[in-house]
Recover the amino acids of this structure.
């Protein structure tokens, strides 16, 4: 799984991301913000899917590392029933924080990061920052794990530390990828699709092992990158599953509120598109002056067509942005 962001002509474009990219170890889309997200949990989980990568989330427990401010709150018994801990307070985590605060006014939100580079930004947003590895002195009712596996040598271990800081009262959301779904022929896949067996792929092994840990506890878009490259050596018919970042955040919060246990949900806009269709829509929108020349690859793997109708029905959730075409304003 990975964090993705996008830079484009319009600020609005920074809110779309591709889920299949998140899990790609060496993907040109790793920093794409049009993505797919999948959420799993030992107690509560969700999945989102998007343009070029997947993102998985599990709701089960909170993260264990907190900073001095958090330790002060803990010793004073100030952790509230709606307080939230975000591990990996990046793009998605910040949107979750904004929406959670709107729904839970007066709550405290804590954000754990790998470095202090963006702590000033988090403080301005009303998020209490902490560094990964800080001593855990308090447990929280709600936690969302949004950190990618790309910058750690023990991803399952990091997830376990997060779970140890959950007090079991609310939910823990673990963000991962749709990569574990065993489908790569542009075929259909939903919440109940089979997963890749352990041992077949080191990339999916990391994600599956991280998911198991939770279960044990009960700004740069792909389209912008392609435009800048002009020609990209990947196949044009690879299917991408998309979701807007705001929709990914709202689905995460909807799952958190349900306080479910041992569930897996999927998040996507139910309008899968190929890489070529993405670029055709971008060209049709007229938002970019640069012209994309085309894709030249023929041998790289195909994708999957994700459908989350079951998730929508059970959670009572619908995306704000129904499709990438609607987002661009070119839907027929």
């Amino acid at each position: 799984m990975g964090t993705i962001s996008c830079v484009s002509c319009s600020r609005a474009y920074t809110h779309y991301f591709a889920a299949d990219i998140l899990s790609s170890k060496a993907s040109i889309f790793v920093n794409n913000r049009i993505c797919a997200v999948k959420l799993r949990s030992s107690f509560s989980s969700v999945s989102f899917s998007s343009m070029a990568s997947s993102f998985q989330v599990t709701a089960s427990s909170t993260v264990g590392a907190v900073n001095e401010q958090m330790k002060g709150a803990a010793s004073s018994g100030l952790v509230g029933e709606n307080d939230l801990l975000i591990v990996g307070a990046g793009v998605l985590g910040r949107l979750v924080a904004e929406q959670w605060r709107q729904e839970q006014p007066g709550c405290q939100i804590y954000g754990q990061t790998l470095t202090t580079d963006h702590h000033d930004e988090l403080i301005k947003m009303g998020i209490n920052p902490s560094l990964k590895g800080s001593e855990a002195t308090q447990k929280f009712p709600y936690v969302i794990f949004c950190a990618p596996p790309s910058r750690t040598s023990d991803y399952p271990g990091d997830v376990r530390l997060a779970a140890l800081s959950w007090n079991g009262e609310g939910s823990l959301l673990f963000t991962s990828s749709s990569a574990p779904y065993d489908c790569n022929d542009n075929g259909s896949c939903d919440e109940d699709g089979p997963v890749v067996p352990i041992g077949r792929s080191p990339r999916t092994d990391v994600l599956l092992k991280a998911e198991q840990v939770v279960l044990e506890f009960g700004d740069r878009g792909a389209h912008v990158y392609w435009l800048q490259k002009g020609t990209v050596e990947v196949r044009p018919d690879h299917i991408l599953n998309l979701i807007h970042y705001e929709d990914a955040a709202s689905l995460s919060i909807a799952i958190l509120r349900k306080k479910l246990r041992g569930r897996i949900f999927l998040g996507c806009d139910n309008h899968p598109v190929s890489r070529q269709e993405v670029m055709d829509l971008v060209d049709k929108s007229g938002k970019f002056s640069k012209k994309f020349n085309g894709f030249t690859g023929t041998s790289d793997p195909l994708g999957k067509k994700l459908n989350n109708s079951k998730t929508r029905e059970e959670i009572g959730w619908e995306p704000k942005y129904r499709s990438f075409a609607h987002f661009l304003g070119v839907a027929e």
User: Anything to note?
Assistant: Residues 1-15, 17-35, 41-76 have pLDDT under 50 and may be disordered. Residues 202-216 form the longest helix (15 residues). Residues 248 and 319 are 8 Å apart (CA to CA).
